[in-house]
Write a structure and sequence with these properties.
By secondary structure, the chain is α/β, with parallel strands linked by helices. It has one domain: 3-Layer(aba) Sandwich (Rossmann fold), CATH 3.40.50. Helix content is about 60%, strand content about 10%. Helix 1 crosses helix 8, helix 2 packs across helix 3 and helix 6 packs across helix 7. It is globular and about 40 Å long. The site of adenosine-5'-diphosphate (ADP) has 17 residues, from helix 2 and helix 3.
């Protein structure tokens, strides 16, 4: 059972690494960005509220985002651990998540922060805009999202740093390079319980004991 947060600037490849980590630990991956986009697509009540914020590259108000996350974490598939991708992004969301978890006797195990140079990120997002035709990937909106990330999320990572559960991983290079780095960082940060995951049936007993 493991509870992980994945934090990183727009374009750092959070979605890809989220899928990788969720698979590695057999946990559900919950992306607030994906949930919002899905709701906008289906024009639900939530989607109609979120739409203008997404299109402007602004955060959806905490009150809306928090309640959505509370509901999602209450679902059965999140009871055996989870990875939250893109939440919390504000100190208000950090406090809210603390309360939700405390009220159900849960604790975070790890906060993983993907890092990358701003210029590299902007280039990646402009490329993705062409490929995926996302309405929040125009040059102006990208600049907004980047500034917002650094202003709002830096205090969030500092908070988790103070708690001693923050691990930073460089998000540059190929997807498999980053996944390998993420995997090593997780093994080190989570200690022996996760290292056992690396022990496959074919490995000798001595080797397993050394881990
Ligand atoms: P990115 O990290 O590339 O900005 P996401 O898919 O994580 O992309 O988020 C897309 C948009 O969804 C954000 O720009 C914001 O409008 C909204 N959003 C996602 N997560 C949150 C959050 N935790 N709080 C407020 N708004 C959010």
């Amino acid at each position: 059972m493991i509870r992980i947060l994945l934090i990183g600037p727009p374009g750092a490849g959070k979605g890809t690494q989220a899928t990788y980590i969720a698979k590695k630990f057999g946990i559900v991956s919950i992306s607030t960005g994906d949930i919002f986009r899905e709701n906008v697509k289906n024009q639900t009540r939530l989607g109609r509220i979120a739409e203008s914020y997404l299109d402007a590259g602004q955060f959806v108000p905490d009150s809306v985002t928090n309640e959505m996350v509370r509901g999602r974490l209450g679902q059965n598939d999140a009871h055996n651990g989870f990875l939250l991708d893109g939440y919390p992004r504000t100190l208000g969301q950090v406090d809210f998540l603390d309360e939700v978890l405390a009220s159900t006797g849960q604790e975070l195990d790890l906060v993983l922060q993907l890092t990358a140079e701003t210029e590299e990120l902007v280039q990646r997002l402009l490329l993705r805009a062409k490929l995926e035709n996302r309405s929040d990937d125009t040059a102006e909106v990208i600049r907004n999202r980047m500034a917002l990330y650094f202003n709002e999320t830096t205090p969030v990572t500092s908070r988790y740093g103070e708690r001693g559960i923050l691990t930073k991983v460089e998000g540059v290079g190929s997807i498999s390079d980053v996944s390998a780095r993420v995997s090593t960082a997780l093994d080190i940060a989570l200690g022996s319980s996760s290292r056992h995951i690396a022990v496959s049936a074919g490995d000798s007993f001595e080797w397993a004991l050394q881990l």
